[in-house]
UniProtKB/TrEMBL annotation:
This is Metallophosphoesterase. The keyword Nucleus does not apply. One of its GO terms (cellular component) is membrane. Residues 9-28, 488-531 are annotated as: Disordered. The keyword Ion transport does not apply. The chain crosses the membrane at residues 37-58, 140-160, 167-188. Residues 502-512 have a biased composition (Basic and acidic residues). Signal peptide: none annotated. The lineage of its organism: Bacteria, Bacillati, Actinomycetota, Actinomycetes, Kitasatosporales. Residues 254-420 form the Calcineurin-like phosphoesterase domain. GO terms for biological process: lipid A biosynthetic process. Keywords: Hydrolase, Membrane, Metal-binding, Transmembrane, Transmembrane helix.
Length: 531
C-alpha cells in the first residue's frame, strides 16, 4: 500500500476543476431540464414587463390633445382609452397577451385655439388624427421592442450571470412580442369600436363617441371613430364660446320652472344643481309635487327649504290640503292660492291651486269646467292687482285649462299637469308655458312602456320690464337613460297687443308630443283657443 501524505491529498483536491454552471438554488434547476423552461419563461416575462414599465411608453400628439401610448401585459388584450378625469372606455380590439393603453393627458391650448379660430380645420381633423395615431403606433412598436429585449436581457444577466443565457432571454422576449403582434393582427376586430365599454363619468355620456351602429365596420371606420372622439371632446371644450345667440345680462332675473315631481327624490338634486349652475333667483313649481297627498308623504317636501333660492308653489291635483299646509310652514317657501301674490327676487308672482284633488281618479271630478272656473277667478284677481297699481309679472296654475283663462291679464303664465312641454302665444298676448315632469313621471314611470324624460326650464326676465327675454329648456334622460340636452329659445320681440284687437295678433305655438297621465278622456287634448 502506498501512503500519500494528508497535505498532498488535500492539495490535489483543491486543484480539481469545479463543474461549471449555476450555484445555490439554481443548481437544482440546472440538474433538472424540465424545470429550466418554466424558469426561463418566468425570467423573460418578468424582464419584458419591467422593460415596458420603465421605457415602453410614447408621448404622442393626437390632434389637439397630448397622449401617452403604452403596451401592458394582459390576459385578454384589447384597448383601453383613459380620458381623465371623465373615466375610460375599453375596446375588445384584439386577443393577445398585450393591451394598448392610451392616456389622454391634456388638451393643448395652442392647437385647440387654432381650431376655434379656424373652424374649417375641423373638416381635416380626422385625417390629422389618423396620421398622428399611426405615427404614435409605429414609434410605440419600435420602443416596445427595445424595452422588452433590454428588460429580459438585464434580468437574465442578473439571474443566470451568463451572457449567453441573458441574450437567449432577450431573444425569446422579442420572439414573444412578435408572436403577440401576429396574434393581435390575426384577431383584430374593427367592430369593437361599435360596442365600447364605458367606466367612470363616461358611462353617463356614451354619446360623446357618437352612434356608430349605422356605419360599415372596417378599419377605416375604426380610425374615423377615434378621430370623432377627439373632435367631439374638442367641441365640448369649446362649446361655451359657440353659443352667442343670447347672453343674459348679469342683472337678468333667472327663474327656474319645475313641475310634476311626483315624489321623485332625484328631482331635488337636479333642482339644486340647476340653481347653482345657472345662478337661479327664484324657483316656481306648478304643482303635483306629491303622488297621493297623504301626511305620510310630507317628509319628502323638506328639501324645498334648502335649494338655494326662494320656492314658489301652487297645488296640483295630486297635492292635498295637508300637503299645502305643510309646505306653508317651511321657511323660504311661498304657497300661492286663490289668486294670492308674492313679491320675490324682483318679480310679482300670483297663482292658484288646482280645484280638483284626484290622485287616483276614484271619485267624480269637475273636469275641465272646474279648471276653467278656477282660471277665471285667477284672472279676476290679476285684473284687481293691475287696477291697484301692483301688476303681476307671472301667473301660475297647475292645469293648462285654468292657465289659458288668464290670457290678456298677465305677460306670462306657467302650468304643468300634462307631462310634456307646451309653448303657446295666446290670442290676447299672454305667453303660456307648460312644463313637463321634473320628476320624470315619478314612481309611476316604471309602469310606462318607455321611460319619461326629466324636464325643467330656466327663464330669463328683464329686471326693468320683467318681460321674458329667453329660456333654456333642459331635458334629461329618464329611468335607465343617460342623455342630456339644453336648448335655448327666444320669444318674439313685441308681446303687446297690436292695433285692431286680437284678430291681428300673431299666434305662436310649439308643443312636445306626450300623454297626460291624469286627464280624463273628455279633456284629453288641451283646447286650442279660437283666433
Amino acid at each position: 500500500m502506498v501512503r500519500v501524505p494528508f497535505r498532498a491529498a488535500a492539495s490535489r483536491l483543491r486543484r480539481r476543476p469545479r463543474p461549471a454552471g449555476p450555484t445555490g438554488p439554481l443548481r437544482a434547476t440546472a440538474s433538472r431540464p424540465w424545470v429550466r423552461v418554466p424558469v426561463l419563461l418566468l425570467v423573460v416575462v418578468a424582464g419584458a414587463w419591467l422593460g415596458l414599465l420603465v421605457v415602453g411608453s410614447v408621448r404622442a400628439p393626437v390632434g389637439p390633445m397630448d397622449t401617452t401610448m403604452t403596451l401592458r401585459p394582459s390576459v385578454s388584450g384589447g384597448t383601453k382609452i383613459n380620458v381623465s378625469p371623465l373615466g375610460a372606455l375599453r375596446l375588445d380590439s384584439h386577443i393577445a397577451p398585450v393591451r394598448l393603453d392610451v392616456d389622454v393627458d391634456q388638451l393643448d391650448p395652442e392647437r385647440s385655439q387654432a381650431l376655434v379660430k379656424h373652424p374649417e380645420r375641423l373638416s381635416g381633423l380626422q385625417d390629422e388624427v389618423t396620421g398622428d395615431v399611426a405615427a404614435g403606433a409605429r414609434e410605440l412598436a419600435l420602443r416596445s421592442c427595445v424595452a422588452v429585449v433590454t428588460g429580459a436581457t438585464a434580468l437574465g444577466l442578473v439571474v443566470y450571470r451568463r451572457p449567453r443565457r441573458a441574450l437567449a432571454a432577450g431573444g425569446l422576449a422579442l420572439a414573444l412580442l412578435a408572436a403577440s403582434g401576429v396574434s393581435a393582427y390575426a384577431t383584430w376586430n374593427p367592430k369593437s369600436v361599435l360596442e365600447p365599454k364605458f367606466s367612470g363619468l363616461l358611462s353617463s355620456a356614451p354619446s360623446v363617441v357618437g352612434d356608430a351602429r349605422s356605419i360599415v365596420t372596417d378599419f377605416d371606420v375604426y380610425q374615423q371613430e377615434l378621430a370623432r372622439l377627439v373632435t367631439n371632446v374638442t367641441k365640448l371644450y369649446d362649446a361655451t364660446s359657440t353659443l352667442p345667440v343670447y347672453r343674459p345680462d348679469p342683472a337678468t332675473i333667472r327663474a327656474l320652472h319645475v313641475s310634476d315631481i311626483h315624489l321623485n327624490p332625484a328631482a331635488w338634486h337636479i333642482i339644486a344643481s340647476l340653481v347653482e349652475q345657472y345662478g337661479i333667483d327664484v324657483i316656481i313649481d306648478s304643482g303635483d309635487t306629491m303622488d297621493h297627498g297623504t301626511a305620510a308623504e310630507n317628509g319628502f317636501l323638506d328639501p324645498a327649504a334648502d335649494l338655494g333660492a326662494p320656492y314658489v308653489w301652487v297645488r296640483g291635483n295630486h297635492d292635498s290640503a295637508v300637503t299645502q299646509a305643510y309646505l306653508a310652514k317651511l321657511r323660504n317657501v311661498h304657497v300661492l292660492d286663490e289668486g294670492g301674490a308674492v313679491d320675490v327676487a324682483g318679480l310679482r308672482v300670483a297663482g292658484t291651486g288646482d280645484p280638483q284633488f284626484t290622485p287616483d281618479r276614484s271619485r267624480p271630478t269637475g273636469g275641465k269646467a272646474s279648471e276653467r272656473l278656477a282660471g277665471m277667478r285667477l284672472a279676476s284677481a290679476l285684473r284687481d292687482q293691475r287696477r291697484a297699481g301692483t301688476p303681476v309679472d307671472i301667473a301660475v296654475a297647475h292645469d293648462p285649462n285654468a292657465a289659458r283663462e288668464t290670457d290678456g291679464t298677465v305677460p306670462l303664465v306657467l302650468a304643468g299637469h300634462v307631462h310634456h312641454r307646451v309653448n303657446e302665444l295666446l290670442p290676447l298676448g299672454t305667453r303660456l308655458k307648460v312644463e313637463g315632469s321634473t320628476g320624470g313621471g315619478g314612481l309611476r314611470a316604471v309602469q310606462n312602456e318607455k321611460p319619461e324624460k326629466v324636464h325643467a326650464s330656466v327663464l330669463y326676465l328683464d329686471r326693468t320690464t320683467r318681460h321674458l327675454q329667453a329660456w333654456d329648456e333642459i331635458t334629461l334622460g329618464g329611468l335607465g337613460l343617460t342623455t342630456a340636452e339644453v336648448s335655448r329659445h327666444l320669444p318674439e320681440e313685441n308681446l303687446e297687443e297690436p292695433e285692431g284687437g286680437p284678430e291681428g295678433k300673431p299666434k305662436e305655438k310649439t308643443e312636445e308630443k306626450g300623454d297626460d297621465p291624469d286627464k280624463e278622456p273628455a279633456s284629453s287634448p288641451p283646447p286650442t283657443p279660437s283666433p
